[in-house]
Write a structure and sequence with these properties.
133 residues; alpha+beta; 3-stranded antiparallel β-sheet; 41% helix; elongated
Length: 133
């Protein structure tokens, strides 16, 4: 149900512009906003974290990141993975799909916490160091 927020917002903005202006801008906004909302909805549905064969693949809103399990240093409370690349540079990859919001239903929050625990276990992180759950 929450996946419909972006297209619905786009249609709402398009309706406001349609009623308050005229000409080509009105038509452009009427088409553009629902399309952008639909694309954002699809990208949100595709967000996920996959752990397989020693690699954590984070499919984010804008990009995909492949991280070796041995490179992960900790899981922050944001939540994000702190890791080092092959050159030794510190990296940070947000895991927005498992974010926490006090206004969300408790079942969603428990599910996200459980998934973060599973991610931490898969990365071999000890529970007392860098694991927010």
């Amino acid at each position: 149900m929450t996946g419909l927020v972006f297209p619905a917002a786009g249609i709402g903005v398009a309706a406001l512009v349609w009623s308050s202006s005229s000409g080509i801008p009105r038509l452009a906004v009427t088409v553009l906003f629902p399309v952008i909302g639909f694309i954002a909805c699809l990208r949100g549905w595709q967000m996920r974290v996959v752990v397989e064969r020693g690699v954590i693949v984070v499919y984010g809103f804008f990009r995909k990141r492949m991280i070796g399990v041995g490179q992960v240093e900790r899981l922050t409370s944001y939540p994000a993975l702190r890791w080092r690349d092959s050159r030794g540079r510190a990296r940070w990859t947000p895991v927005w799909i498992f974010a926490d919001n006090p206004r969300w239903p408790m079942t969603w929050r428990r599910y996200n916490q459980a998934q973060l625990r599973r991610l931490a276990d898969a990365a071999g992180l000890p529970r007392n160091r860098g694991v927010p759950v």
